[in-house]
């Protein structure tokens, strides 16, 4: 019996040892890293300019401190734009001739990450973080990363953003004084539409000898966000995903409100979109205000440049306007980092770097340059922001600091939202981004042509803003969106 007992104990010990070797690092077992034999990791991202410099500086600091101590060396590479990064990743996955090998870590939006997850190329990060560690992150950021069929974590939140309104205060003031317009008007989407009409009429009146030359007040980046968050504010989840199945919700009444507060003012010239980004349009004096990402604050111009000269401008950071009587939702956006499926040692090392990068002090240092929001709960406060700036003597752009402060002040009363990932999600988002915006731009051009031939604005715009015009757009929009989500809209 004694011999049998010893054999049983040895057998159990062997089984236990084998089981422990299968448990991902981070759950209490010994680190698989060896400082004497460091692991080298590559990170691909889309940061450029000051954002890239800030990220590279943090990577260098990690390598010189924690990385050296634990045996991790990180090399970071910018792939250019988001689309360039996505193309490089797809080429690597597909083994395209001349493509680089898959990086260990790369920036990814949820829709792209979902495609890569379906290809089986992403590491499951769940086992590398304890529940206590997960609880330190903003809950909705973690939930966004649970894109696998079993809802395990695939996207590590590293930097997020939402939307704000940026206003050219200098050129707003004469208009406000002349018409009685108030900043309070800009709190709602309907208020922005009304103010934009008033601004167009006021600027048109400044040149009575040139009829129909009024100027746009407002524009927005990311029209897809207008649809997703606008519908959410109105009580409709346009992409409702449950148990991996997506239900498309496109009710006529709510979409009519979106149409009349984007398409109609665009066709009439009250809203505008001319350059690559709306901050470009502020710089050229074509608009005074826009809704865009928090990370766009640094690009808001310091002066307006006109054909006959330029002048400096002051700015205001305001909360993004919401639909009147709508629910207080704001967009949650910004790429996270995903880890390529490799082996336990490399995956563990990758998560160790991401944990370090998202520590409050490090994440806020990056945010102070980039305008991105930190991902830990403790870091999302004005008090913590000011503390880190003071302790580390950080040079921070006033625009970026004002932007972060505005968001932190309002977070307690705002629900950040992003739809769950689903197959063909990227194609569906493109329909939201371009279908209405392209139609509005095309019809605005036709209105301008009619005005040039002597028609008044109301006469020129009349055919495009009828209920029949809405019904035609609505049918076309629903058809395009259905084709996208079913995969039938692919070229």
Explain the overall architecture:
This protein has 491 residues and is α/β, with parallel strands linked by helices. The protein contains 20 helices and 15 strands. It has helices at residues 2-22, 49-64, 66-70, 82-93, 110-118, 131-134, 139-144, 169-179, 189-205, 223-233, 252-260, 263-267, 278-283, 344-357, 360-370, 382-391, 398-410, 425-452, 457-461, 467-485; strands at residues 39-45, 72-78, 105-108, 155-156, 163-168, 218-220, 239-242, 245-248, 289-293, 303-306, 309-312, 315-319, 329-331, 336-339, 415-417. It has a 5-stranded mixed β-sheet with strand order 2-1-3-14-4. Strands 6-9-5-12 form a 4-stranded mixed β-sheet, with helices on both faces. Strands 7-8 form a two-stranded antiparallel ribbon. Helix 15 (360-370) packs across helix 16. It is globular, with a radius of gyration of 26 Å.
Total E-strand runs: 15
| C-alpha geometry | globular
| Strands ordered across the widest β-sheet | 2-1-3-14-4
Model regions low in confidence, pLDDT < 50 over at least 5 residues: 1-27
User: What value does the average pLDDT take?
Assistant: 91
Q: How would you classify the quaternary structure? A: single chain
Q: Report the C-alpha radius of gyration, rounded.
A: 26 Å
Number of helices: 20
**Could you tell me how far the N terminus lies from the C terminus, measured between alpha carbons in angstroms?**
73 Å
Q: State the secondary-structure class.
A: alpha/beta
Strand proportion: 5-15%
Reported for the largest beta sheet, the result is: 5 strands, mixed
Helix content: 40-55%
């Amino acid at each position: 019996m004694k011999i049998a007992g010893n054999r049983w104990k040895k057998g159990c010990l062997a089984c236990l040892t084998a089981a422990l070797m299968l448990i991902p690092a981070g759950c209490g077992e010994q680190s698989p890293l060896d400082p004497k034999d460091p692991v080298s990791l590559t990170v691909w991202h889309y940061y450029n300019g000051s954002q890239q410099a800030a990220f590279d500086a943090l990577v260098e600091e990690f390598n010189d401190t924690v990385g050296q101590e634990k045996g991790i060396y990180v090399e970071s590479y910018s792939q250019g734009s988001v689309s360039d990064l996505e193309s490089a990743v797809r080429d690597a996955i597909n083994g395209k001739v001349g493509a680089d090998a898959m990086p260990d870590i790369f920036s990814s939006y949820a829709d792209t990450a979902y495609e890569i997850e379906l290809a089986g190329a992403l590491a499951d990060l769940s086992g590398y973080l304890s529940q206590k560690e997960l609880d330190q992150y903003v809950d909705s950021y973690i939930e966004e990363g649970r894109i696998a069929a079993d809802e395990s974590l695939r996207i590590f939140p590293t930097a997020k953003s939402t939307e704000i309104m940026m206003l050219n205060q200098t050129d707003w003031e004469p208009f406000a004084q002349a018409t009685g317009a108030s900043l309070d008007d800009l709190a709602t989407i309907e208020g922005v539409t009304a103010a934009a009409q008033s601004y167009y009429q006021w600027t048109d009146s400044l040149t009575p000898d040139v009829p129909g030359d009024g100027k746009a007040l407002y524009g927005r980046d990311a029209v897809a966000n207008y649809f997703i968050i606008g519908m959410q504010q109105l009580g409709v989840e346009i992409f409702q995903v449950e148990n991996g199945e997506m239900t498309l919700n496109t009710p006529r009444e709510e979409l009519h409100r979106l149409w009349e507060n984007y398409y109609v003012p665009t066709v009439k010239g009250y809203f505008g979109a001319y350059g690559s980004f709306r901050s470009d349009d502020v710089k050229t004096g074509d608009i005074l205000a826009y809704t865009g990402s928090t990370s766009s604050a640094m690009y808001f111009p310091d002066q307006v440049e006109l054909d006959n000269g330029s002048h400096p401008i002051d700015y205001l950071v305001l909360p993004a306007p919401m639909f009147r009587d709508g629910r207080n939702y704001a967009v949650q956006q910004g790429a996270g980092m995903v880890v390529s499926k490799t082996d336990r040692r490399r995956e563990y090392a990758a998560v160790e770097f991401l944990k370090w990068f998202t520590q409050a002090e490090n994440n806020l240092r990056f945010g102070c340059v980039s305008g991105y929001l930190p991902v830990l709960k403790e870091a999302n406060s004005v008090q913590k922001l000011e503390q880190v700036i003071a302790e580390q003597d950080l040079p921070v752009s006033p625009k970026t600091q004002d932007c972060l402060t505005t968001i932190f002040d309002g977070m307690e009363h705002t629900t950040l939202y992003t739809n769950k990932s689903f197959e063909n999600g990227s194609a569906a988002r493109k329909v939201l981004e371009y279908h209405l915006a392209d139609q509005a731009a095309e019809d605005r051009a036709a209105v301008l042509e009619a005005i040039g031939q002597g028609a008044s604005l109301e006469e020129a715009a009349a055919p495009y803003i009828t209920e029949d015009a809405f019904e035609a757009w609505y049918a076309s929009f629903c058809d395009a969106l259905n084709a996208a989500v079913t995969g039938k809209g692919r070229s």
